[in-house]
Amino acid sequence: MQPLVELNHVAFGYGSEPVLEDICLHLHPGQFAALVGPSGAGKTSLLKLILGVLQPARGEICVHGKSLNGRPAPRVGYVPQLESVDWNFPVTVEQVVLMGRVRRSGVWPWPGVEDRRRVREVLERLEIGGLAGRHIRDLSGGQQQRVFLARALIAEPDLLVLDEPTTGVDMRTAENVLHMLAHLNQQGMTILITTHDLNAAAGHLPWVVCLNRRVIAQGPPDEIFTTETLNETYRGDMLVIRQDGMLFVQQKPHGHTYHDLVPNPVAGEAMPQTPESNNGRLSSTVSV
Predict the structure, then answer these.
(1) CB of 284 within 8 A of CB of 270?
(2) What does the pLDDT look like over 72-106, one tens digit per residue?
(3) pLDDT tens digits, residue range 240-268?
(4) From CA 28, how far away is CA 190, in angstroms rounded?
(5) What is the mean predicted confidence (pLDDT) over 206-223?
(6) DSSP state of 271
(7) Among residues 5, 25, 23, 4, which one has the least CA distance to residue 13?
(8) DSSP symbol at 87
């Protein structure tokens, strides 16, 4: 099967600062994959390279077997981080979703009956059909995420790319978003996300790519989420626990935590004071 997306020996940087080095990565139709790695690892830059927003310094990026060569990627839907959206912009849910139809056609037509029918259909599919007339700033984080997912889906993409879709929402909402993406994937949608939540990736994603400027490892999380691989990816001391068929990842605690200083804290107890170098004065601030 021909890969939907191919990155062959791709390198990218901002000015003289390298961000990605010798990236070789294939994404096949029907895959549901996540990019994981520390902040600054190049995850968002890699997504933007696939979208055609950024251009590689070296290497080639192909979508549907054709090199992008500086063009936007065809039939790829993008859902940005919620933190990057201006929620004060005066638009309704329906207007946001209709922007996805504009991206597909490349023009700004007046929405017709068929456009509005498609909006209703996509919103119902994502279980937010009653929100079409609401202002986006009045929605919860989970509802906002679904609105921007609807904007991407209305363009009928072959590939759905999401940047940190579970950031800024509570645990239950994050679970719902991942379940919704899994359902879309079962219907045939190819999906690529970035995430900092390793435990969510372990529990929900069938394929994970560990990235830190280069591809450290890729495969099913049960195989590649090892202490050695994660230590190399995050350049830290990671702990991998397997229990009752589940996998959990945690960074090993460092010294100088509150519990190191106060082994048996009492409710309401004041934090211990520590000497500072500033004229020998005491401070109640403890670094945690």
Answers:
(1) yes
(2) 999 999 998 877 777 778 899 999 999 887 655 45
(3) 998 888 888 988 776 556 566 666 666 66
(4) 8
(5) 97
(6) P
(7) 23
(8) T
> Are 150 and 136 contacting, i.e. CB atoms less than 8 angstroms apart?
no
Residue 109 class from Cβ within 10 Å (0-12 exposed, 13-18 middle, 19+ buried)? exposed
DSSP string, 18-75: EEEEEEEEEE-TT-EEEEE--TTSSHHHHHHHHHTSS--SEEEEEETTEE-TTSPPTT
DSSP calls for 229-268: HHHHHHTS-EEEEEETTEEEEEEPPPSS-HHHH-SS--TT
What pTM was estimated for this model as a whole? 0.83
Backbone phi and psi for residue 67, each to the nearest 5 degrees, phi listed first: -65, 135
- Sheet with 207-211: list strands edge to edge: 76-79, 159-163, 190-194, 32-36, 207-211, 215-219
| CA atoms within 13 Å, Cβ hemisphere of 22 | 1
Structure tokens at 211: 């990235």
At residue 141, what is the residue type? G
Residue 47, number of CB atoms within 10 A of its CB? 22
Angle at 23 between CA 217 and CA 211, to 5 degrees: 40
How far is 45 from 50, CA to CA, in rounded Å? Answer: 9
Q: Give residue 223's pLDDT.
A: 95
Tell me which DSSP letter residue 163 carries: E
Q: What is the pLDDT of residue 159?
A: 96
Distance separating alpha carbons of residues 164 and 32, to the nearest angstrom: 14
Is the confidence at residue 273, as pLDDT, over 80?
Answer: no
**147 secondary structure, DSSP code:** H
Which value, in Å, is the radius of gyration of the alpha carbons in the chain? 22
Q: Which residue has the tokens 């202002």?
A: 135
